[in-house]
Design a protein that fits this description.
α5 (38-54) runs antiparallel to α6. It is globular and about 50 Å long. It is mainly α. It is built from six helices and no strands. The chain has a domain at 16-86. The chain starts with a helix and ends in a 30-residue tail after the last helix.
């Protein structure tokens, strides 16, 4: 059993984000794309997958484990692409009546150099 399975409650919530990042998660996305362009993200992800699947790593010895890491990488790439599209937009604003059982979505495209 992995540490993540043993402590599921702890690892099922954000643990790396500080308070400021939790309040402004879109800034985290912006910061990511300041550090890594979309093509660089793909390049690092491909290298990571190649390393995991082509080296003699017992953690990925079985076909199901290799499939799981490959599927995870595909989903992570989708997440990165979605974050890339969101980074130029502001979403999730509370409704004017203050009800918290739903969110209204307002999209504002920011006009700034390098936003896309």
């Amino acid at each position: 059993m992995s540490i993540f399975e043993r402590y599921q409650e702890f690892y099922s919530r954000p643990i790396r984000l500080n308070n400021e990042q939790r309040k402004e998660p879109l800034k985290v996305i912006d910061d990511f794309f300041v550090d890594f362009r979309l093509y660089e993200s793909r390049e690092y992800l491909a290298a990571w997958i190649e390393c995991a699947l082509t080296t003699s790593n017992l953690q990925f010895a079985e076909a199901g484990q290799r499939n799981a890491i490959y599927t995870f990488a595909e989903r992570l790439e989708e997440l990165i692409e979605a974050a890339y599209l969101l980074r130029g937009k502001t979403v999730v604003t509370l409704p004017a009546d203050g009800r918290r059982n739903y969110f209204s979505f307002k999209t504002i495209v920011r006009n700034r150099p390098g936003a896309n």
